[in-house]
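Re-run with default settings, no changes from the original entry. Doing this only to confirm the output is reproducible before filing.
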Amino acid sequence: MTDAPFQRARSPEAKARRRADILSAARAILDQEGSEAVTLQEIATRAGIVKSNIYRYFESREDILVELLLSDMAEMNDALADMDSADRGAEATARCIADAFVARPRFCLLVSLLAPTLEHNISPERLRAIKLQLLSEQKRAVASVCARCPDLRPDAAAEWTNMVFVLAAGLWPMTHPGPALARVLEAPEFAAFKLPFEDQFHSAALAALRGYIAGSGPDRTG
């Protein structure tokens, strides 16, 4: 936070910097303290602006967090596109995608919050724009999957990528309990509830992918 007097951003460049500062502040809070600590007041404090100024750039706290999710998803797709796709087949594809999620815990957390929390305090117009961005990023993910798994039809690849998101959304909170539950699960009788995210995610993604490959006959969209 700066000690300089607050000045409203007026030029397009200044507005872009201010927007980036807000996102950077939210990202830092999320990484350091968790999602519950991400409040508009804390974001404003870290970004060196007044809280009300945030509404010039984002509709709500949830809108900011969704923007972080979209940014992380785009970065992940960039990384997948740059990877060598020489290793092909179900096992290699599932491992590649699973590793991409595992390497991005913030993204997994945001995916788990998207449907139950983040999409509930955003206007319909903004939600439509978000969904269009998600569709665009999904198409990029499908292209990466198809390059690695030629036995999978594009429509089946799209269904599988959706399934992978559902798996991440469900498994992340189950494998990352809060402090109180984590202490309870230390008891030996609850060992079955202590699930490793990486192993569970990869196994489930691979099983689902094999099912989609087995069902890949003539294109159902035709």
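The radius of gyration is 20 Å. The domain at 10-58 is CATH 1.10.10.60 (Arc Repressor Mutant, subunit A).
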